[in-house]
Amino acid sequence: MLIVGESLNSAIPKVGQAILNHDEAFVSDLARSQVEAGAEMLDVAAGMSGGNEPGDLAWMVRVVQKAVKVPLMIDTTGPGALEKALEIHQGKPIINSISGERKRLENLIPVVTRLSCGVVVLCMDDEGIPKTADKRLQIAHRVVNELIRKGMKPDDLYVDYLIMTVGADWQTAAISLETLSLIRKELPEVHTICGLSNVSFGLPAKSLLNAAFLSMLLGAGMDTFLINVRDKHVMASLRAAAVLVGKDPYCASFLKAYRAGRLKVD
Amino acid sequence: MLIVGESLNSAIPKVGQAILNHDEAFVSDLARSQVEAGAEMLDVAAGMSGGNEPGDLAWMVRVVQKAVKVPLMIDTTGPGALEKALEIHQGKPIINSISGERKRLENLIPVVTRLSCGVVVLCMDDEGIPKTADKRLQIAHRVVNELIRKGMKPDDLYVDYLIMTVGADWQTAAISLETLSLIRKELPEVHTICGLSNVSFGLPAKSLLNAAFLSMLLGAGMDTFLINVRDKHVMASLRAAAVLVGKDPYCASFLKAYRAGRLKVD
To answer: Which helix (H) or strand (E) holds B59?
Structure first.
């Protein structure tokens, strides 16, 4: 199980502004608070209008890894920004993300196969995000096979089966859950990941929805959690769910978190 | 999806005492508060030392169905108590439970096959509760097949794959989850149920564990929930999880519960 903090993302207005301003204190604090809350890796994304992604992302990697000793998930689709960030990055990163889109594959495969890194594989292609679980699985198969042919190990691949908000389409989470089950069955050797907070976008009681979805996804075999680690409800549910799938021997981590007051939900 | 309130159970000391005293106000209030909280059916259990199960159970059925207009889950292993309760019961009950134990089968099959009722089938036999998911599935197969041969419909069967506390065995919930998946795959036409509150017995942060387990089990296909409906965290998680598995069209029930202040978790 790998816990990745989602918050250093330029799509969040306050964070985007801090990146534009190269506000080192803000970014360092957000890095530290996520690691303190339990993140073992941090996602960093710097793409936004008005910014200079290659320069901003490289700055972020430098600042974050000065503040905390964890590897990063480099969140970009630009090969230039990616190469620059990877030159600076310490340790083994995960690149977020490649997909079945022809151009993205052509641009990124030379970069990701040259280095020791993990790669997130999105289940979408040039026609967008398929509506059905079967078609998402087909894309995962195709891209995973291509990366393995190019020398990558299955253990370095993280298939993202894609989460959209149930606020716009009330059946979409069920399709994602079905896709996860298919991937666990058909590609058992790769990891699975998703941006689960998307599920509650635009809805009330977000923590409740995110926490319930997290438990469901862990139960269905997802092993890599890109989440808001500073959301107490979500993190407490992750600790409970880890017990329930038998990943917390003697409930030791759960009981330790309880004694530290970390299982309160409010 | 069927929501069954678990609280009218003589194993809970306060409830047991009220049953011994034939305290009609207490039992009626507990019935009403569960239905108000969302229960569509109520489990009733009267077996305890010092009591007279056939008389107590019949009294409970009468009192509860005077207080609320829902069918009951008659929770007993005694054929005498069962027959008496069934004579009084209004509507279609579910009998909780039969199992692979030879004597229990012989005693209960004539009763349950004579009436229009549902039956809970426990995945255990004369050797106790099997440690492995495969063996629990074998028992489910055997008992379900026997009941179908005797004329019962699969839609009237509720397989209970058995939940024990992770406080005593930290791997036990994972085995139950695996059993659920096997049953959903091998016996897709029957319902699945469990006494999920058992999972947190003896542990702190019970609501958190129960809520996380409920989301996980709904995601894995369980459709009948014997739960503490008066636990706000558990009920709010059930509403969230129902959205996520695509069982709440347009999130209408979820949004209605939110507006009514029913999604607060504390």
So the answer is: helix B53-67
A42-81: pLDDT as tens digits: 999 999 988 999 999 999 999 999 999 999 999 998 888 9
Residue B215: which of A175, A204, A216 has the nearest Cβ? A216
Looking at this predicted complex, what is its ipTM? 0.93
3-state SS assignment for residue A119: strand
Distance (Å, whole) CA A167 – CA B131: 41
Q: Name the residue among A93, A109, A103, A188 with its Cα closest to residue A148.
A: A109
Handedness of CA A16, A19, A23, A27 (dihedral sign): positive
H or E element, residue B230: none
- To 5 degrees, how large is the angle CA A40–CA A98–CA A83? 75
Positive or negative: CA dihedral A15, A20, A26, A29? positive
- CB < 8 Å from A in window 177-216 of B: 177, 199, 203-205, 208-209, 211-213, 215-216
Parallel, antiparallel, or unpaired for β A41-45 and B191-195?
A: unpaired
* CA B182, B186, B188, B190 torsion-angle sign: negative
For the entire predicted model, the pTM comes to 0.94
What is the residue type of B5? Answer: G
Tokens read off for B92: 């279609």
Pair of tokens at residue A229: 């680690």
Q: Which helix (H) or strand (E) segment is A255 a member of?
A: helix A252-259
The Cα of A136 is separated from the nearest Cα of chain B by a number of Å equal to: 18
Tell me the chain B residues in contact with residue A220 when contact means C-beta distances shorter than 8 Å.
Answer: 219-220
Q: How many other C-beta atoms lie within 10 A of the C-beta of residue A151?
A: 8
Q: Which amino acid, one-letter code, is at A45? A: A
Using alpha carbons, select from A192, A176, A172 the residue that is nearest to residue A184: A192
DSSP-derived 3-state class of residue B172: helix
* Distance between CA atoms of residues A74 and A68, nearest Å: 15
How high is the pLDDT of residue B207?
95
3-state secondary structure of A123: coil
Whole-angstrom distance, CA of residue B200 vs CA of residue B164? 8
pLDDT digits over B2-61, tens only? 999 999 999 999 999 999 999 999 999 999 999 999 999 999 999 998 899 999 999 999
How many CB pairs below 8 Å do chains A and B form together? 137
